[in-house]
Design a protein that fits this description.
Distance between the termini: 91 Å
Strand content: 5-15%
Strand order of the largest sheet: 4-7-10-1-11
Number of helices: 24
CATH topology of the largest domain: Rossmann fold
Shape: elongated
Radius of gyration: 31 Å
Helix content: 40-55%
CATH class of the largest domain: Alpha Beta
CATH superfamily of the largest domain: P-loop containing nucleotide triphosphate hydrolases
């Protein structure tokens, strides 16, 4: 499809001159949102955003309908940046502007001197170019070194020298990010990291709708929708949003982590690289639940800093590592099917520990220890979803009678299945996992190992770090210590104080 190439052709085309003159970006977002709400039966606005349908999305819809600038507040890994970028889906497919203009001037109402002079000189032959929605989105990560010149603009002596202009000429202006985002969406990520004196530079554009370039008595009435993201803990950890700026932000919207495991699984399945270009992979449902419950357990664990949060990137990265470990095993053993096991979840610890901010108690125990505890907790809860009320005494009794089995994460499925079949009653208990003798050895081994790990998580059987499953070890009975030893422990703090004074 060809679009008008000159101002004259544009006037004679389907692009409404009156609409382009009067409709601003926030009106455009509002009108396209209304049209989308009318088309979608389920009321979905942003495809791919899971878990916010009844909480965050309605608030964003209200902010857009109100033509507000808004801010998303939430901990890391809550899809804030993704939501901001999804706003471009509410922009028109094509937007005409004067070709070559740095601030994408409206052909019918140019605001920069160059474009006004060009329209006066060329008239109907003024060249026209077009912007796509993605080109109308400008994003800036706030850092302490951002300057007013970066955001608004400054004098460019090189332009003056090359063009032979006076420094007072409009032609010597170097436009910042805000003017270059004209007629589009300007997003600032991690707003509290922006220095307070730089935040002041946003006042005019948010309230009066214009900016003033340093050293020039000119104003640019820009047309912008401004949105922000921030971590609420950043207000005290690294910086703060100054009060006058907060007052100018129309809506403050709080994001959150998935409310249910099912929502988390849906997000992970959508974002993780599951479909590999090698062996076909089959991820059992219980593996997905275990991986997701690791994040849920971490968000509740006292050894992990709740103020920092546990990003949704944790289960996404962990799932990718789980599949990669299973893929490595399949390649080494020349197996045609990739089926992850619980042992692969333990192998994904590097994707878990790096995303946990530990409290003092957690630091004392170590990230690996905390990560393994989280996996065991996740396995126990997932096991209960499938085997609550199930009678597995026969399996436990096999171990109590001296049975032992060692399962490595690299052992072939056929070899592991032969060992597992020796455990009395185990293979017959795979029904709740929807696995039977008709399934592949890889799937049977994965299901059987999950049952053993579930029994171990509930301390019904034992297992060491070499993955040797055996009978559960009884804890030694507590022995009463001699009174002399107790007295020594009670007096030790006083001895230490005496040493300090001496």
């Amino acid at each position: 499809m060809s679009f008008p190439a000159t101002l004259g052709e544009l006037r004679r085309s389907n692009f409404s001159e009156a609409c382009l003159r009067t409709r601003r970006v926030k009106d455009e977002l509002r009108e396209n949102l209304i049209a989308r709400l009318g088309r979608t039966e389920d009321g979905s606005v942003f495809p791919g955003i899971v878990g916010y349908e009844d909480t965050v999305v309605p608030q964003i819809v209200n902010a857009i309908l109100s033509r507000h600038n808004f801010i998303l507040l939430g901990l890391r890994g809550q899809a804030k940046s993704r939501i901001l970028r999804a706003l471009t889906t509410l922009l028109d497919a094509q937007l005409p502007y004067i070709a070559g203009c740095e601030i994408r001037d409206n052909p019918y109402a140019p605001i920069c001197r160059r474009c006004r002079e060009e329209v006066a000189r060329l008239g109907e032959q003024t060249p026209i170019a077009y912007l796509t929605p993605d080109e109308r989105y400008v994003e800036k990560l706030a850092t302490p070194d951002v300057t007013i010149a970066d955001l608004i603009g400054d004098i460019d002596p090189i332009k003056a020298a090359r063009g032979g202009h006076e420094l007072s000429s409009d032609y010597t202006v170097h436009y910042g990010l805000l003017p270059r985002a004209n007629r589009g969406i300007f997003a600032v990520n991690e707003l509290p990291d922006l220095a307070g004196k730089i935040q002041v530079g946003l006042f005019n554009i948010m309230q009066e709708g214009d900016v003033q370039i340093k050293g020039y008595p000119i104003r640019l009435p820009l047309d912008l929708a401004i949105v922000f993201s921030a971590n609420p803990e950043d207000y005290t950890a690294r910086g703060k949003i100054i009060t006058p700026l907060k007052d100018r932000i129309g809506s403050e919207i709080r994001t959150h982590y998935p409310a249910t495991v099912e929502e988390g699984i849906a997000i992970t399945a959508q974002e993780a690289w599951v479909r590999r270009n090698g062996h076909p992979a089959t991820v059992p449902g219980y593996i997905g639940e275990v991986v997701e419950r690791v994040a849920f357990a971490a968000r509740e664990d006292k050894k992990i800093d709740k103020r920092s949060g546990v990003s949704q990137r944790l289960p996404i990265s962990a799932m990718e590592n789980v599949i990669s470990n299973a893929e490595r095993r399949a390649i080494r053993n020349q197996e045609k099917l990739v089926v992850p096991r619980i042992s692969d979840v333990y192998a994904a610890l590097p994707a878990i520990t790096g995303k946990l901010e530990l409290e003092y108690e957690g630091e004392m125990k170590g990230a690996d220890f905390v990560g393994r505890e989280l996996i065991r907790s996740a396995i126990a809860k997932t096991y209960d979803q499938y085997f609550t009320g199930a009678n597995l005494n026969q399996v436990v009794q096999w171990f109590d009678l001296g049975g032992e089995i060692q399962l490595s994460d690299s052992v072939p499925a056929s070899e592991a299945l032969a060992k597992l079949k020796a455990i009395q009653g185990l293979i017959g208990k795979l029904g709740p996992l929807k696995v039977s003798d008709d399934h592949s050895p890889e799937e049977q081994v994965s299901a059987a190992e999950f049952i053993l790990e579930g029994l171990h998580a509930h301390k019904r059987i034992g297992r060491n770090e070499e993955r040797l499953f055996k009978a559960g070890e009884k804890k030694p009975e507590r022995q009463e210590r001699p009174e002399r030893e107790k007295d020594f422990e009670r007096e030790e703090p006083f001895r230490q104080k005496r040493r300090q004074f001496n």
